[in-house]
Design brief:
Blueprint (H helix, E strand, L loop, with lengths): L2 H4 L4 H10 L4 H8 L3 H9 L6
Length: 50
């Protein structure tokens, strides 16, 4: 997912799309160049940790 594509999406949408792609937070972090903590922070807004 590119930055421009993810901009403005809700944390719940980002989490759902990550899960539909079969990616863990760690895998998404590696692909996107973000830290796993940043990915987890976006998921925390939805009340999820995985």
């Amino acid at each position: 997912m590119t930055e421009s594509r993810s901009f403005g999406r809700s944390p719940a949408t980002l989490r759902r799309e990550r899960e539909q792609a079969g990616l863990t937070q760690q895998a998404l972090a590696a692909r996107s160049g973000l830290s796993q903590a940043a990915i987890a922070g976006s998921n925390a807004a939805t009340g999820c940790r995985a």
